[in-house]
Design brief:
Blueprint: E1 12-16, E2 19-25, E3 30-36, H1 48-62, H2 78-88, E4 96-97, H3 98-105, H4 109-117, E5 130-131, H5 148-159
Helix pairs in contact: 2-3, 3-4
Amino acid sequence: MKTRPGNELFSAIVAAPFGAVGVRTDGAFVRELVYLPSQFGEKSPTDPVSEKVAHQLERYFSEPDFRFDLPLAPVGTVFQQKVWQVISSIPRGSVLTYGQVARLIQSAPRAVGQACGANWYPMVIPCHRVTATGGLGGFSNQADAGGFHIGVKRWLLAHEGIKDW
């Protein structure tokens, strides 16, 4: 496997149809998943937790209905956790708008968007299933319509059966 600068930051780097996913673990928990461009190359898992993550990511990339079962480190504020819980309940093939999520938790759409952008576990907590009222919206705190992260969001939604983006 290729070794590139920055690879040492990750316990594994898994090839993805849109680039790669960097996996950070601490030996017991997943600490973070990061969308990466393909120039990062792949990195073999360095521990059992990152091996489990790599296997589950590969399953998701081939089976959009696959459900993750990973030991996630507890992170986020109480509010973020509330948003992430709602997002985690959105079924594959469906989306909610930031406003719809906000109404469910009695909050504001912008605050929901900020919680989505603070998600440490994208795909596992599927923030890509949250969109703007009039379009795709941002993704991973990125709003560039032609950028890498928006491309990832489009791919994830299409992979899960939503082709309109």
